[in-house]
Amino acid sequence: MSSGIGSLFSSLFLYLRSLLFSKHLEICVVGLQAAGKTSLVNLLSSGQFADEMVPTVGFNMRKVRSGNTTIKVWDIGGQPRFRSMWERYCRGVSAIVFVIDSSVPLPSAKSESGSTSTITQAPTSTKSASAPAPAASTTAPKKEDPASASASALAAGSSTQSPSAWAVATEELHALIERPHLAGVPLLVLATKNDIKGAARVDDVINIMKLDTIANREVSCYSISSKNQVNIDVTLKWLVARSPVGK
């Protein structure tokens, strides 16, 4: 009889402790279209990766559970018409996650400034170094249907974005974090698709996107692959470690 009562109190204690020590976070995932945001969110929430994803129209909300932590994730569309929504959903979150497609060819002129110790870099299991942008052809390219070109690129696992996407992403990121309502919110930049040959390294991302110039907030940059689940565990640990909303 006493053992049964002891077991009951033990179970009750564990339940109350889970309530008292549970954490509820809220993050916002933003970035240009086709950067890999939804693939990442789906992987975190369901543990599954899909090669083909439907572009996010507006926003999606998912919940990610890790141990005693529940993370509410806002996945916001990256098309130009949705970027004005970013600030609204980033207000009051525990962290802003900015996703960039690291398989996009690097711009020909890269910043020569080095990274600083204020940027946290996650190790990556891939050994491929970044490749320079391909040389321009002197002959007129063969005309190709845009739809078939996009399909071919997706089938090959490569990006359909041009090197100018780096400049656009950098401009959008800095414009976002300069908003007064987002002051001090931790920033995590994720360079996705590092499984693709020639993907930009973390140092490249830091330099090109001028992450080492961002002050008055925590900034981290990881190189990840949703397809091969590279550094996804590191990303999740970083998110879980953020302070709860309203703390």
UniProtKB/TrEMBL annotation:
InterPro entries: Arl8a/8b (IPR044154), P-loop_NTPase (IPR027417), Small_GTP-bd (IPR005225), Small_GTPase_ARF/SAR (IPR006689). Residues 122-140 have a biased composition (Low complexity). Keywords: GTP-binding, Magnesium, Metal-binding, Nucleotide-binding, Signal. It comes from the Eukaryota. SMART domains: ARF, RAB. Mg(2+) binds at residues 38, 56. GO terms for molecular function: GTP binding; GTPase activity; metal ion binding. PANTHER family: ADP-RIBOSYLATION FACTOR-LIKE PROTEIN 8. This is Small GTPase-RAS protein.
